[in-house]
Amino acid sequence: QVNIGSKLTTSGIKADALRVQNSGNYKETTRAKSTNMIRACFTIMGNPIAKAGDKAIFMRIISPDGKVLSEGSPETFEKDGKSMEASIKRVVNYQKENMDLCIFYDVDSAIPSGDYIVKIYCEQKEIASTSFSLK
User: Fold this and answer.
1) Which residues contact 35 (CB under 8 A, 6 or more apart)?
2) By mean pLDDT, which of 1-10, 70-79, 81-90 is the weakest?
3) 69, 38 in Cβ contact below 8 A?
4) Which of 4, 28, 45, 67 has the least CB density, counted as fewest CB within 10 Å?
5) Distance in angstroms (rounded) separating the CA atoms of residues 105 and 83
6) Residue 65 and residue 107 in contact, taking contact as beta carbons nearer than 8 Å
7) Residue 52 DSSP class
8) Cα(61)–Cα(116) distance, rounded to whole angstroms?
9) Tens digit of pLDDT for each residue in 92-118?
10) How far apart are the two ends of the chain, measured CA to CA in Å?
11) Taking 90 as the threshold, does the pLDDT of residue 75 lie above it?
12) Count of C-beta atoms within a 10 Å radius of residue 13
C-alpha cells in the first residue's frame, strides 16, 4: 500500500521542439530541421507519503523510427529489472509539494520528421507520457 501511495504523479505534461535563436532566446517550432532542443514541462504533484529529497528524473524521447534520442553517452536506469536508455537525467529536490519542472534536451544532429513520444520516469516507474509531431 505504501509503495503504491508513495509513487510520484504528474499533471499537465507538454512536450515541444524549440529553435534556439542567435540572441539565446528560444521559440517553439514544428519543423524537424530547425529543432535545436526538445522541452518537456510538467508538474510533479505533492504527495505527503512520498519521501522528500533528491529524485532522479529520467526523460526518454522516442523518435519516429523507434530509437531513443541520446547524444554521446546515454543515461541508463532500471525499470522492472531491465536496464533502459534515457535521453537525459535531471536530479531535483522534491519536498512533498507541487513542483513545476521543465527538462531540456539538446539536439546536436539532424532528427527525422514524424511523431515523437516523450516518457518521464522516476524511481523505476513511468510517471508521465506525451507526444508531439514534427514536419
Assistant:
1) 17, 18, 19, 29, 107, 111, 134
2) 1-10
3) yes
4) 4
5) 21
6) no
7) P
8) 7
9) 999 999 999 999 999 988 899 999 999
10) 45
11) no
12) 17
Which residues 6+ apart lie within 8 Å of 27 measured at CB? 18, 19, 21
Question: Residue 19: CB partners within 8 Å, gap ≥ 6?
Answer: 26, 27, 28, 29, 31, 34, 35, 36, 37
Q: Report whether 116 contacts 134 (CB < 8 A).
A: yes
Please, is 67 exposed, middle or buried when counting C-beta atoms within 10 Å of its C-beta (0-12, 13-18, 19+)? Answer: exposed
- Each residue's pLDDT tens digit, 48-73: 888 899 999 999 999 999 999 987 77
How far is Cα 59 from Cα 76, in angstroms, rounded to an integer?
A: 10
Q: What is the model's pTM?
A: 0.90
Residue 47 has phi, psi (to 5 degrees) of: -145, 110
- d(CA 103, CA 88) in angstroms, rounded, equals 8
123: left (phi over 0), alpha (psi -120 to 50) or beta: left
Nearest CA to 119 among 40, 9, 56?
40
Sequence length of the chain is: 135
Taking a C-beta distance cutoff of 8 angstroms, is the pair 96, 48 a contact? Answer: yes
